[in-house]
Design a protein that fits this description.
Two copies of one chain form a homodimer.
Chain A lengths: L10 H7 L9 E14 L9 E10 L9 E2 L2 E3 L6 H13 L5 E8 L10 E9 L2 H4 L10 E18 L2 E13 L3 E13 L3 E11 L5 H16 L13 E2 H12 L5 H8 L3 E7 L9 E5 L4
Parallel strand pairs in A: 1-6
Antiparallel strand pairs in A: 1-2, 1-4, 2-3, 2-7, 5-6, 7-8, 8-9, 9-10, 11-13, 12-13
The structure holds a DNA duplex (27 and 27 nucleotides).
Pfam families (chains A, B): NUDIX, WHD_NrtR
GO molecular function (chains A, B): hydrolase activity
Family (chains A, B): Belongs to the Nudix hydrolase family.
Chain lengths: 294, 294
DNA sequence: GCAATAGTGTCTATCAGACAATATACC
DNA sequence: GGTATATTGTCTGATAGACACTATTGC
């Protein structure tokens, strides 16, 4: 247990006398992509309300990017993990604690923060509309929910020496107090022995830092996971109808789904209750809850 | 474009006079889980060689963890992204450049490095056995390939207030110059409104830092992606038989597969060539290469 | 009764698991 | 010829897409 190194020093002696070198160190932040689903009023008393996917943004009150909208986030402290920093940020911004939280990706582009060297470890959180009431307008900082739209714009494929490069551009639109938009490209370089994917911000109107890229990445992760996990259930209130669940899937995937197939697919993810909707102007619907087993 | 903040300062003035605060900053490193597949000699001239999944480790020549085995890695420099640092590390350790590289996860547990506050952004690289010749024993540092085994040991499920906690323990064994082993647990806490997964090192014999956890995470990612992407093809040489490809899938998944079903499944991932194996002691096999389109 | 949604049935094409049958070099 | 692998065929059950049909409430 007390091996000596080439200077004849034990590990505990080494740690005792260890002084961090003069290497330059980055600041590390967490940035949170917090999603929720809200309901829009319907035209007719009979129609169901429309669902919308929303993300929480905060207007920057100081330089840099003064007045632009940014993801909630902040510096990671020496006594906490990035996970803990994310939980802390989430609680500060929304007041909620127990929600779905997942590390997304660590962004480290040079110059992504004009002030200094900052690496961001990004997270995605899913909040159900029940909890949503708790927050909003709690402290001075201006926070707002923006409706998310993320659609493919264009696709290019270029053949190269030993493979090809495929570039797909997406339009990210965020509608809230203001209308923000950005174009993000995803470039996949496929060669015989390698495959690499890169995200780039092509244009950007109203979002701070590289946050358009982070939001795009989060949406892609969310869309991917919705298909093969029960992740979308974290966007639902305690009780919900299958039609509401389907609407959430549809608004996340930006795609219409077939009712029968959808119900088969989610059958194992939900649990029947004996509750029903009432006064809907049409046939009542059974309420379900998330199925926890397995 | 030149908004003034509450002190009446423009963004460029702000950046001009910006001085990083006295916040403590972490060191950021990249750690690389570099996988390859090698062939073991067969008993009989007729039998095919057995494939093995291997990972590259480096014996630590100084404190802390002197003499233990660690993942290749190093500090991220101020003029590079974590991706670039990973590529640099990979080249330094193996001499190869164009390989599959994917960011895995950012580990930030308190005390994961006994010296100081270090956050590690981990990457997985896949190298094919062709390229493998290039490296090994190039510089003074002792690097070696270890055969990987990662098997479920035990599963527990505990019911709690509003959900359950499922703990699965895995045994990680690494066989190379020495025999290293660790037990890593994956704990999933499922409650009505949240789901969280956590990895923990239960025991650890011979691996430095929290690298057992990183390797476990990498294997799980690799196993997951093998099923629905062409990622495994990055472990293959330029030309290969379908049986060899199947063996790679089997050694990665630690599971036998049915031949007919396997061939149907990978049909679109590979491209026929007119080449065949020779002198095999049995019927020759057609050689395939990675199919690049789509 | 009618509008609007809830919920179920079923046909078909596709695909994975399972197993079998046939094919072919090389010693 | 015999061994060990290569390659294809096919049966079956499960599943997704597509569409249609029936059910039920509140006004």
């Amino acid at each position: 247990m007390s091996l000596l190194d080439k200077d004849g020093i034990t590990e505990s002696e080494f740690l005792e006398q260890y002084r961090p070198g003069d290497y330059e160190r980055p600041s590390v932040t967490t940035d949170m992509v917090i999603f929720t689903v809200t309901e829009e009023e319907a035209d007719s008393y009979r129609k169901l309300p429309e669902k919308e996917l929303r993300v929480l943004l905060i207007r920057r009150g100081g330089h840099p990017f003064l007045g632009k909208w940014a993801l909630p986030g902040g510096f990671v402290r020496p006594d906490e993990t990035t996970d803990q920093a994310a939980v802390r940020e989430l609680r500060e911004e929304t007041g909620v604690g127990e929600v779905y939280l997942e590390q997304l990706y660590t962004f480290s582009d040079i110059g992504r923060d004009p002030r200094t060297w900052v690496i961001s470890c990004s997270y995605m959180a899913l909040i159900n509309s029940d909890k949503l009431e708790l927050k909003s307008g709690d402290d001075a900082s201006e926070a707002a929910w923006f409706k998310v739209s993320y659609r493919p714009l264009q696709e290019q494929k270029e053949l190269i020496e030993d493979g090809y490069i495929k570039t797909r551009k997406y339009e990210l639109e965020l509608n809230g107090e203001e209308k923000l938009s950005a174009i993000v490209s995803r470039t996949t370089t496929v060669k015989t022995t390698s495959t690499a994917t890169e995200y780039e911000i092509v244009s950007n109107d109203g979002l701070a830092f590289d946050h358009a890229k982070i939001i795009a990445y989060a949406i892609e992760r969310l869309r991917g996971k919705v298909n093969y996990t029960d992740i979308a259930l974290h966007l639902m209130p305690k009780y919900f109808t299958l039609t509401e669940l389907q609407q959430v899937y549809e608004v996340v995937l930006d795609k219409e789904l077939l009712k029968a197939a959808f119900r088969r697919k989610v059958a194992d993810l939900v649990e029947e209750t004996d509750l029903y909707t009432e006064n809907a102007g049409h046939r009542p619907s059974r309420l379900y809850q998330r199925h926890l087993e397995d």
